[in-house]
Amino acid sequence: MNLIFEKTSVGRKAVELPSLDVPEKSDLIPKNMLRNELNLPELSEIDVVRHYTELSRRNFGVDTGFYPLGSCTMKYNPKINEDIARLPGFTNIHPLAPQEINQGALQLIYELEKDLCEITGMERFTLQPAAGSHGELTGVMIIKKYFEVKGEKRNKILIPDSAHGTNPASAALCEFEVETIKSNSEGCIDLEDLKEHLNKDVAGLMLTNPNTVGLFDKNILEIANLIHKNGSLFYCDGANANAIIGIVKIAGMGFDIVHLNLHKTFSTPHGCGGPGSGPVGVVKELVDFLPVPLIEKNNSNYYLNYNLKNSIGQVRAFYGNFTVLVKAYTYIKSIGREGLTEVAKNAVLNANYLMSKLKKHYDLPYDKLCKHEFVLSDKNIPNGITTIDIAKRLLDYGFHAPTIYFPLIVHGAIMIEPTETESKQTLDKFAETMIKIKKEAEENPDLLKNAPHTTPVKRLDAVQAARNPVLKWE
Amino acid sequence: MDYIPNTESEKKEMLEEIGVQDTLELFKDIDKKLILKSPLKISKKLSEIEVRKKLEEISEKNEQVKCFLGAGCYNHFIPSVVDHIISRSEFYTAYTPYQPEISQGSLQSIFEFQTYICKLTGMDVANASMYDGSTALAEAAFMAHNITNKNKVLVSRAIHPEYRNVVKTYCQMHNIDYTEINYNDGTTDIENLKNQVDNKTAAVIVQNPNFFGCIENINEIEKITKENNALLIACITEAISLGLLKPPNADIVIGDGQSFGIPLNFGGPAFGFMAVKSQYMRKMPGRLVGMTVDKDGNKGFILTLQAREQHIRREKATSNICTNQALMALAAAVYLSMMGKQLKDLAYINLQKAHYAYENIKQLNNFEAAFSAPFFNEFVIKCNNIEKLFQKMKENNNIPGLDLGKYYSELKNHLLINFTEMHSKEDIDNLIKIMKELK
Prior knowledge:
The complex is a heterodimer of chains A (474) and B (439). By secondary structure, chain A is an alpha/beta fold. Among the domains of chain A are: 4-28 and 42-56, no CATH class; 80-334, Type I PLP-dependent aspartate aminotransferase-like (Major domain) (Aspartate Aminotransferase, domain 2, 3-Layer(aba) Sandwich), CATH 3.40.640.10. Chain A contains 13 helices and twelve strands. A seven-stranded mixed β-sheet of chain A has the order 1-7-6-5-4-2-3, with helices on both faces. In chain A, β4 (202-208), α8 and β5 (233-238) form a beta-alpha-beta unit. In chain A, α4 runs parallel beside α9 (322-358), α5 crosses α6 (166-173) and α9 (322-358) packs across α11 (424-443). Chain A is globular, with a radius of gyration of 25 Å. In chain A, 59% of the residues are buried. Chain B has 439 residues and is an alpha/beta fold. Chain B has two domains: 66-77 and 342-437, Alpha-Beta Complex (Aspartate Aminotransferase, domain 1); 80-339, Aspartate Aminotransferase, domain 2, CATH 3.40.640. Chain B is built from 14 helices and 17 strands. In chain B, a hairpin with an 8-residue loop joins β13 and β14 (378-383). The N and C termini of chain B lie far apart (57 Å). The model of chain B has no long low-confidence stretch (mean pLDDT 97). Chains A and B meet through α1, α2, α3, α4 and α5 of A and α1, α2, α3, α4 and α5 of B.
């Protein structure tokens, strides 16, 4: 379809601006500071609305259909959350207004923090980070500052080979050297390899538990013990917290720092890739290192506390993605303590059910109880069909594809996370479709190799896009 | 309401398929010691009626006031269309467009967003958004360090104090030398810049209009920066200014796009943008959408140049950014499509309103202009008793602006005050009247 810039028509307007009601003055700004041209399109309101409505119809969201994108927890985004986040008392408030004016906002952040502390067992949280990876960066900054204050030179962070790419990238931004820990044959941390890497240079281990193959590391307490004995800190990538909230506390596993993804576990929408929110929680010993400000309560008065002795500083202007926090808070209040536990139970039930159905037809490298997700491989698929073909064929059947080719430890990984908000009927339909696709691979492989067939565009030329980048309309 | 559709009997069928009796058996791989024995100390579930009531009550504790605060977060008119479009759940319930064939809506709108940012900033390449202006600025500092292999960034004190805090935090972690340049009469002190810039300087960082609302002498700053083979990073917190002002002739332009159709939201979410000259494209952080063709030769859009990114390059990536602020970038694209060329008229209204207020306020007995540099829609005014002013304004349900003494010890009794199209002449006259009555 055409771009918005191709729809311009000279003289058209979509907005009626107010007329100038103050006396006009000229030459307020020197001419050399003024721009010469402003080459923006001229459209009417209906032009704009039709354009973006048409674009929206070329998009697939959780509301469109099943979205089993592993490690992303694409659960249903309740509509009430959207309405609440749009209340003028939340949208129309300025972050730098005197604190006594915004007591409701501070109260909400304060109470959400308390709930996250209870859910994870951590002492305090910062709600400033704007996304999971931003939370990771904040966590690694805390690790770095902690050892600086202690006067210890530790320059290494250990990360398993199954970890999200953001883990090593976050560590590297803080000038840590990254060392990779192997996974064992069961898909979890290889304890021997871990022991070999532990020494006085190690500042911390970043671990996702349950991990990216959907497995809970049964050695978690031993790992924590090894890390702590080494004087290092234990970081939890909480991207997969949906599998364990209300069942296990993250601090209970021995983690010192955790980031959560409110846009995964706590139902706030993913918005084509953001805004998210990545709060970071820490144990008591590390509270002093959190970013400023924290929000405190004194009698019935909420206030911003900038007075933290070893704080890493601010990681974002203002207080985080506030209306995302509003949505997460609304969600926790809606589902309550009963719901929080049911979330994990049903996320795990759905994943195991789907895994049980699919493992009869697809290779399952780690065939044991999974948590919120599981990973198939493209081994044993005939006729040269690989993961990408299966993923693209799923689009024809009205499903979003799973996460593919991640984690790297599984050949042609197909990482499936159904979440708790999907019904048995949806899972059955998906399983049937996957089985049908397997059959198509055997009988009519071209159908898969040329998939998708029904989408607005066919497979795109990624090589051309990268070799000759066209990144704007000219 | 827990949003779980399966009934007890359906769950039972599913457990049978798995071959276990009870859901809790699915957690038997977890050490028993770790399994919680008692329920969480979280409030009980609420009905939608109760949730709405509770949250409305909290929201109403935030007082609705007439506000003349800008300082990086601006109260602008938002056409209804913007929220209607970003409320379409095909957009807001989607994630990062990993499957381009069913994500052309996200991808094309981001491509259009990138185009808009390039048009406004005069740069060659813009990415698909950053978290906010402050983190975009910190990432730009890292980027300049990586491009130049030099270790010092010079940061104007006329940059938003919270942005400077964030850059400082990031620089400490990356062992980059963070040094500030003074300001003089409201803009970056050119002499002080000349004294501090050297061949170790990776970047000179200024804001335009700066935190005081003043317009910087970018050309002069650019000349000095280039003479020292450093990069110039320009930061924009009031994006509406781009409708009127010449885009900064910088190497990297970053900013916060809240002014483009996004409410105040207590400071977030909005989005950060980053635009660069083409030679720095491959050193950029964040997602980039490119135009290509599908196998039938039809135009299509796809995430591209991903070899810079964390999911491919891991610890060698240009940044760790993954999730960004895509829906807010969409809001901006819709806003700019609605506003079109009228962005200039809108900026002009802002300019005129602020100058009308300025001319009147500086003549009042207890007030005087702080700086003489040209400004856009925000300026600094000195008053003889700022606490009294805030108190008096509060009685009239007004917030007069930002008390700069909290951020600059030398600017006690200085007020940063902002005017937009949302302030009518009547609002401004009322403000002036209250100020006039101040003894």
